Amino acid sequence: MAAPLVTIVCLCYNHATFIREAVESVIHQSYKNTQIILIDDASKDGSADEIQKLENQYPFLEIVLLPANLGNCKAFNIAFKLAKGKYIIDFATDDIMMFDRVEKQVHCFENLDHTFGVVFTDAVYVDVNGTVLRNHFEYLFSKGLLSKIPSGNVYQSVLSQYFIASPTMMIRKSVLDELDGYDENLSYEDFDFWVRSSSNYKYAFLNEKLTKIRRKHKSLSSGWYQPGDTQLYSTYLVCKKAQAINRTKEDTLALTKRARYELRQSFLSQNFNESKLFFQLLKDLQQLRWLDYVILNLSKLNLPMSYIRTWYHRIRYDA
């Protein structure tokens, strides 16, 4: 049986420092039947010059240079329209693939039935110099953020908690076809993709560290919820989608857990409009508690809470 084609979408935005290492980690995979699409989302740091060098050296690369910055969702969808593979990898050009990542994920996928839409793996986080910071699942376990790694029917799990390192995913192309790619109305893609895809497809976990994920800051709390965070509204929109998808009481409880968490984080990060939206969602779900009312009323006071949240998270999650 012929090896299935894998399309790897390499998405670049201001990754000039890292792009060669990232793209060459894709090119030199042990698995050779790949289509590599390198798309630059109007970088401002000289990434286009590095892409030109790569194109000269590796003419089989499919290059797309966007004239204006569109964001991850729209940029990925443009590249996705060119995809021919049975499987898709959405790959940022500041990350690094292990030599046998594609081979191992394809082997895993080919031994699963059509009900599986995603294979995800463990990962290693590295800093800008490539120094190892932490292992993905080891960290989640050590902080009490996860007790076991969900697999199979993961819909309730992706609703209620974070556990998948999205750069590790290999996706069956037919799943993305069915979803019409990423939702371009959102400011980020992974939570929405997890919710919409896992409602119809199973996820398989391959217990290997096959990707190095670049972190610009050693602190895990940096880059999380900040005042004016536009991603929070996107999270709310995804939760509303989940409300329409939910079928069981357990689904509703999973969404409730997420909505209550986002209510709390919206308040603590001074995103008070979003805290009101998540309160309303809990009300719609008929899951309000007395503390939710307290948070809502405190949100109306516009208290400077973000420094408290930052302090707590540095102690709780970065120690």
Largest sheet: 9 strands, mixed
Give the topology string: H per helix, E per strand.
Answer: EHEHEHEEHEEHHEHHEHHHHH
Poorly predicted ranges (pLDDT <50, ≥5 residues)?
218-222
Question: How confident overall, as mean pLDDT?
Answer: 93
Q: Which percent bin holds the helix content?
A: 40-55%
C-alpha end-to-end distance: 50 Å
What report would you give on this structure?
Helices cover 43% and strands 18% of the residues. Strands 1, 2, 3, 4, 5, 6, 7, 8 and 9 form a 9-stranded mixed beta sheet that branches. The longest helix is centred in the last third of the chain and has 20 residues. 39% of the residues are buried. About 2% of the residues have low confidence.
Short description:
This protein is of the alpha/beta class and 319 residues long. 43% of the residues lie in helices and 18% in strands. Helix 9 (231-245) packs parallel to helix 11, helix 10 (249-268) packs antiparallel against helix 11 (272-284) and helix 10 (249-268) runs parallel beside helix 12.
Characteristics:
319 residues; alpha/beta; nine-stranded mixed β-sheet; 13 helices; 9 strands; 18% strand; globular
List the helices and strands and how they pair.
Layout lengths: L5 E7 L6 H9 L6 E7 L6 H11 L4 E4 L6 H9 L6 E6 L3 E2 L3 H10 L5 E11 L5 E4 H7 L12 H6 L9 E3 H7 L10 H9 L3 E13 L16 H15 L3 H20 L3 H13 L5 H10 L6 H12 L2
Parallel strand pairs: 1-2, 1-4, 2-3, 6-9
Antiparallel strand pairs: 4-8, 5-9, 6-7, 6-8
Helix pairs in contact: 8-9, 9-10, 9-11, 10-11, 10-12, 11-12
